[in-house]
Design a protein that fits this description.
The protein is α/β, with parallel strands linked by helices. It has one domain: Rossmann fold (3-Layer(aba) Sandwich), CATH 3.40.50. The protein is built from five helices and six strands, in the order βαββαβαββαα. The model has no long low-confidence stretch (mean pLDDT 88).
């Protein structure tokens, strides 16, 4: 088991690394060449810049039982399809029970924006988001170790 992070715009990296370090889990952070990341724990993998380049490389590397951290519902859906676990940086766990609804909402929001409408911006990150990420990531790590 390893943790793969869609790290281009992923808050909570320190929480992810802390949980992984405490449980001796490898972390690989993927980002494009337009970003600079530093870590004393994680492996940083740079990929070419371009539309969904990080997403495609990450999904090609994920294996059954891994944990994927991404804000992108599409990446999460593909990870679930590969029998991996998926969680977003605010700590919400993606699963087969909520994925269809999330993808549908993404589709509807995209449709509204294409027709000139406006959709809501994501809310600012809160302390509760950090706490949820830590709690749920630790739960996923524990579940993976027991599977």
């Amino acid at each position: 088991m390893k943790i793969l992070v869609d790290a281009d715009a992923c808050p909570g990296k320190s929480i992810i690394e802390k949980a992984a370090r405490e449980n001796h889990v490898e972390v690989i952070m993927y980002c494009d060449i337009n970003h600079v990341l530093n870590s004393n724990y994680s492996t940083i993998k740079y990929v070419d810049g371009g539309f969904q380049s990080v997403d495609m490389v990450l999904i090609n590397k994920v294996e059954s039982g891994d944990i994927v951290i991404s804000q992108d519902y599409g990446v999460a859906a593909m990870a679930l399809g590969k029998k991996a676990y998926a969680i977003n940086p605010k700590g919400y766990i993606y699963d087969d029970n909520n994925m269809d609804q999330l993808l549908f909402e993404r589709h509807m929001s995209s449709k509204i924006r294409r027709s000139g409408g406006k959709t809501f911006s994501p809310k600012k990150r809160t302390k509760q988001d950090d706490e949820r990420l830590e709690k749920n990531l630790l739960n996923l790590i524990s579940r993976c170790k027991n599977d």
